[in-house]
Amino acid sequence: MKLQSVILCGGSGTRLWPLSRHQFPKQLLALNDADSMLQATALRVTEGTSWPDIDILQPLVVTNEEYRFISAEQLRQASITPAALILEPFGRNTAPALTVAALRARNDGGDPVLLVMPADHVIGDVERFREAVREGTVHAERGAFVTFGITPRQPHTGYGYIRVATARSGEATALRAFVEKPDLPTAQRYVASGEYLWNSGIFMMKASAWLAEIARARPDIARACEAACARGRSDRDFLRLDREAFAACPSESIDYAVMEGLGSPREGDSARGVVIPLDAGWSDIGAWGALWEVARKDDSGNVARGDTHLVETRDSLVVGGGRLVACIGLSDTVVVDTPDALLVAKRDRMEQVKDVVGWLKANRRPEAESHRKVYRPWGWYDTIDLGPRFQVKRIVVTPGASLSLQMHHHRAEHWVVVTGTAQVTRGEEVFILTENQSTYIPLGVKHRLSNPGKVALEIIEVQSGLYLGEDDIVRYEDTYGRQ
């Protein structure tokens, strides 16, 4: 039997601002350990798992075009070579994402059991999770649609629930119904009854079973995804779905599209919807309060990350962003510091972070979209300083990488090499710069920066001009297929 993870790497995680932003969402962050949430999800099954009767395939990763390069780089750093990185031109929720992954799995010539996992979850007890997955493969191989219900730690209004026949941990049970996020009295009744589990959003089924069921239940989704895959194209390590075909695909979740219909099984088919109760320290880290709940705390109930010093502070989450963060006399507070934004809030007010993000977007503030440090396929840059008519950046280019051949209408640039070797194209000239050497790129001149060496190239770039926005780039050639 073959088992293949399908990692759903979409979403923006606005309630985890200021760390999670549109161009660098929460699944790419290392929130609970040294690995990013995407890396931890991919390693959850592939790393150190040995089942003699199960062939564990490399994962299929479905992500947005905006996150393609950083997702690929994070997987490379984790020594994972995905079976495919499938790029959605825009989000259409989880049912279409799973459908295109299942189509790719079938096109690869097999019919594996798919383990569908969002990339932004935390699993504290990985071994217990693997035991549940092992149990799930037995049912999925028989044609069942399996989901994992989380044993509730307390009544929670932020999660959907699953009604089941029995809720004993590790014991597969029949799916009865999916229910929406309840109010607190309803959540209390659910937990007291022992008939409800939290909806984890993790599923298992054979690729062929999903394709047959989505074609029956939602033929409009099936047709659009088939067209998007058939008209898609391979680009380097990526499979780009056809934009026009995917635009015609309705947005729908796996729950609504298929799973809810399995709660009332057809006659003679009672095992189609199976739930495996799971008690493995699961959290979707939907907000800062959720991270505080699952993270290891000190004797005062605090969770601290980065360079911090806490004095008479209790039950708080403090995340430093490169400089010292000192807190005195706080309780039940969240402090998250980044180079360009600082969040301070009570833990029970975390839902209002999304209101802050809404205000940032309404006022076109860059803090909603990107960090000061921005990742690119060739490396990254950090905006060190800016003001009227000038901007200073620290630019790091990975070995063998190259920026696009480009030109700017409104700015000139001065480059100073700090470390490494730079190959510079300036107009018709091509020349080499080494440490402590510099050059000037006049306004309107075609230019390119490349790293021909074996170590990272670091430069300081000083821009000057009337307009310094990132959209003042005319690309003539680009290794990475950007327009």
Strand order of the largest sheet: 21-22-23-30-25-28
Query: C-alpha Rg, in Å?
Result: 25 Å
Q: Biggest β-sheet, characterized?
A: 6 strands, antiparallel
Number of helices: 11
The average pLDDT score comes to 92
Report the span from N to C terminus. 42 Å
Q: Helix fraction?
A: 10-25%
Q: What is the overall silhouette? A: globular
pLDDT < 50 stretches: 266-270
Q: Look at the helices and sheets and give the structural class.
A: alpha/beta
Query: Proportion of β residues?
Result: 25-35%
Number of strands: 31
Give a verbal description of the structure.
Helices cover 23% and strands 33% of the residues. The strands form seven sheets. A six-stranded antiparallel beta sheet has the order 21-22-23-30-25-28, with no helix packed on it. The protein contains eleven helices and 31 strands. With 483 residues, the protein is of the alpha/beta class. The radius of gyration is 25 Å and the shape is globular. A hairpin with a 2-residue loop joins strand 26 and strand 27.
